[in-house]
Amino acid sequence: MTVAAVAVMMPSANAAASTLGAAAAQSGRYFGTAIAAGRLGDSTYTTIAGREFNMVTAENEMKPDATEPQRGQFNFSSGDQIYNWATQRGMKVRGHTLAWHAQQPGWMQSLSGSSLRQAMIDHINGV
Hints:
42% of the residues lie in helices and 9% in strands. It is mostly helical.
């Protein structure tokens, strides 16, 4: 008499994905983190971020004080650094808030009423 056996190995949850981002992607999700442009030169920081995550957003580089430090003068260089770093690695990028209760540029802090409203309209249109 001959007996045949078949073993079926089901992968464990740990074996199914090797990174947090890969685990999230298995169910159609992403796993993200906030990135600081000033830390992109830190190889430990970027190695972990690039390995574990599949989505990033800027920590503060897309907030009003960074994008419009002087009224009517826009600067996207730090946000662009983060965007370029992420997209070169195939990561998704989420933008940041256009208006935030903190990190307003100094010129905006003294405005109120219709002046503040117009400044926000101009900021949103400029971004």
